[in-house]
Amino acid sequence: MRIGELAKAADVSVRSLRYYEEQGLLTSTRSPSGQRHFREADIDRVGFIQRLYAAGLSSRTIMELLPCVDAPSEATSDAAMERMEQERERLSAHIAELIRTRDALDGLMATNRAHRKTLRRATAA
């Protein structure tokens, strides 16, 4: 199938598919006129790539996980699990930092509310 057909079937943009191909996440064959041709199985592959991006993984990390999909073995499965554990730890640290930032913002908002209440009382008096 051509790139537009894959984009429609996978519900992604042609631009995304070109990016995936540039990153080595997706491959195509070229016709003599230079048109990209993809396999039917690439619909599922694009969906998988989309889910990994939605989970916050980078294209580099996704590339590291694809051998587990492309050539399943105990070694590729172990490598993928190790990489996913690293990503989970990274995401957990990021979430903890976001929570600290949110808590600091909550403190600033509480201070602001208290200050505004003081201003209202002073204006009313």
Automatic annotation (TrEMBL):
InterPro entries recorded: DNA-bd_dom_put_sf (IPR009061), MerR-type_HTH_dom (IPR000551), MerR_fam (IPR047057)
Query: Which SUPFAM superfamilies does this chain map to?
Result: Putative DNA-binding domain (SSF46955)
Q: Which Pfam families match?
A: MerR_1
Name it.
Answer: MerR family transcriptional regulator
**Could you tell me one molecular function GO term of this UniProt entry?**
DNA-binding transcription factor activity
Keywords associated with the record = DNA-binding
Where in this chain does the record put each HTH merR-type domain?
1-68
Q: Which PROSITE patterns match?
A: HTH_MERR_1 (PS00552), HTH_MERR_2 (PS50937)
Q: Does the keyword Lipoprotein apply?
A: no
